Structure formats: C-alpha cells, structure tokens
Amino acid sequence: GAGVSQSPRYKVAKRGQDVALRCDPISGHVSLFWYQQALGQGPEFLTYFQNEAQLDKSGLPSDRFFAERPEGSVSTLKIQRTQQEDSAVYLCASSSRSLGGLNTEAFFGQGTRLTVV
Amino acid sequence: AQSVTQPDIHITVSEGASLELRCNYSYGATPYLFWYVQSPGQGLQLLLKYFSGDTLVQGIKGFEAEFKRSQSSFNLRKPSVHWSDAAEYFCAVVADTGRRALTFGSGTRLQVQP
C-alpha cells in the first residue's frame, strides 16, 4: 500500500477483554516495529520483526502482550486480559532495510487508540 | 541505557518568528539522532536525521538541526514558523549496535499564534 495502515483506528475494550491490533506495513518492507504511546508521552518500543522473525521483544510490558508476523508482512499485536494501564496509542512502523535500517526512514502508521474501561 | 530529554513540554511562538526546540541525549557512543513531527490524528513523520558528518543537517519543511557533541544536544530550529507547523515534536535516538529501536523524548507541543 501507499503507507503503513493500522486497524482499527479506535478500540474500546472492557477490562479483562482480549484485543488484537493489526498493522499492514508498506509492501516489501523488511523491518516492522511496534511502539506504545501513552497520553502526553513519547512512543516507547515494544517489539521488532525482521521479516517473520521477532528479533527483539524486550519492550513488551508483560506476558499479556504478544505479537506475530507469520508471513513477514502483516503483523498483529495481541493484548490479553486488558488492564486500564494498557490504554494508549499503539503505533506500527516499517522500514525497507534489515535490522531497522538506520540509514533509511521508518514510516509510521496513524496508530490504534486503545481505551480500556 | 540511552535516553532523550526534551525540557520544554509546551512552546508558543508567533507566526513568522524563529523557533528552537531543545533536545538532549544521554548515550556513551556516537548516537544516531532524529526529529519527528506528529500532527493530531496523524502518524509520526521524519523531519531530519543525523548519523555522521556535517553537524548541521537540513530537513523537510524548512527545519534544520545542529548536533553538538560537547553539549549532548540536537536542537531543532526553523527561521520562520508557519501556522501549519503547530504539532507535537519528538526527538529520538538509536544505538549503533544491537537494538535498532528508537528511544523517544517526551515531546514538545508547539502552538503558533497568528
């Protein structure tokens, strides 16, 4: 596609509910990142994929968070048993180079705003 | 661990005035530095980046930034601000080894007065 697409744009979940957030990166982009952006804060790294391999998941805040990218394109971030502190904007970014492509730009999606009530 | 500090949470400038947004980083080796802009409801857009070489880098939309190693700073500047520049600005750093993820500052919200 023309850009990174994320869906849904908005999600309201009841506490304890499971949610799945989808990211469609730019076609052919090797690297994919997930970030969490709390209100009034900068984005914080969650996890990184190179193709289908999850090379870094050190930013995932708990074992309730799980991400996958089974075919090396679309990625899904799943949050189980959501808590109020999970309320945030979840951003996905992709870039064309491997290992995050320091010399290439990471393109960000518009994000999914998750509100846990 | 690397970190980024943006001391100004909120800045208001008049249209046509100059702008400087501050960014300080903490990282032992040579950092790779970025400035992103986020408009309401929009994703992050890269304004400019510094990897090496000339310490004054030019970006899109008339922005520039200067890397000062002695001050651990990477301040963003624009000589004349336009109303459309109102947005949230984030400074970010990435390590040159291992983890490739960006570490962001907490952002500076820019308001432009007519």
Could you walk me through the main structural features you see in this protein, from its secondary elements to its overall organization?
- The complex is a heterodimer of chains A (117) and B (114).
- Chain A has no helices and 11 strands.
- Chain A has strands spanning 5-7, 10-13, 19-24, 31-37, 44-50, 53-56, 65-68, 75-79, 88-95, 107-108, 112-116.
- In chain A, the strands form 2 sheets. In chain A, strands 2, 4, 5, 6, 9, 10 and 11 form a 7-stranded mixed β-sheet that branches. A 4-stranded antiparallel β-sheet of chain A has the order 1-3-8-7, with no helix packed on it.
- In chain A, a hairpin with a 2-residue loop joins strand 5 and strand 6 (53-56).
- Helix content of chain B is 0%, strand content 51%.
- Chain B has strands at 3-5, 10-14, 19-21, 24-26, 32-38, 44-50, 56-58, 64-68, 73-78, 87-94, 103-104, 108-113.
- In chain B, the strands form 3 sheets. In chain B, strands 2, 5, 6, 10, 11 and 12 form a 6-stranded mixed β-sheet that branches. A 4-stranded antiparallel β-sheet of chain B has the order 3-9-8-7, with no helix packed on it. Chain B has a two-stranded antiparallel ribbon with strand order 1-4.
- Chain B is globular, with a radius of gyration of 14 Å.
- The A-B interface holds A 3-4, 31, 33, 35, 40-45, 48, 56, 58-59, 91, 93, 99-103, 105-111 and B 4, 32, 36, 41-46, 49, 51, 90, 92, 94, 96, 99-107.
